[in-house]
């Protein structure tokens, strides 16, 4: 059994800060669950262009508000607590946090290793469990 707390991750290597957000990584590849779970906060009025070309992601909004724009369809969806979205086709998207920011629980498959930050194209590189990059 694994038991971790968000508070316990603050200031550790499992708290990753990137441009405009902080991700506290509760479950990672080394936990042998085949997926990873993150508590992520996006700062107020921030806009992130993302494309998880190597990962699938499911997100549940827990605090704040904003919107997600699907760049493939052009559709924009409102985000607020209780709303879930899943990037089931490696969807290119823009995530926009509102005036109060956004907090969300994110699940990635395959599991992240831990140090991942967004590349220029908005994706995370694909790492093996030893921390070596397999694909950019």
From TrEMBL:
The keyword Transmembrane does not apply. The gene is ectC. Belongs to the ectoine synthase family. It catalyses: (2S)-4-acetamido-2-aminobutanoate = L-ectoine + H2O. It comes from the Bacteria. It comes from Marinobacter nanhaiticus D15-8W. InterPro entries: Ectoine_synth, RmlC-like_jellyroll, RmlC_Cupin_sf. This is L-ectoine synthase. GO terms for biological process: ectoine biosynthetic process. Keywords: Lyase. It is an enzyme of class 4 (lyase).
């Amino acid at each position: 059994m694994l038991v971790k707390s968000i508070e316990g991750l603050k200031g550790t290597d499992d708290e990753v800060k990137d441009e405009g957000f902080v991700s506290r990584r509760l479950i990672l590849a080394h936990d042998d669950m085949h997926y990873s779970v993150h508590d992520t906060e996006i700062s107020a009025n921030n806009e992130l262009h993302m494309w998880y070309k190597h990962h699938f992601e499911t997100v549940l909004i827990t605090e704040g508000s904003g919107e997600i724009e699907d760049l493939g369809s052009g559709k924009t969806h409102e985000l607020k607590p209780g709303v879930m979205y899943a990037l089931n086709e490696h969807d290119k998207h823009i995530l926009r946090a509102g005036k109060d920011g956004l907090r969300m629980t994110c699940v990635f498959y395959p599991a992240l290793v831990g140090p991942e930050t967004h590349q220029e194209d908005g994706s995370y590189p694909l790492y093996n469990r030893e921390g070596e990059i397999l694909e950019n």
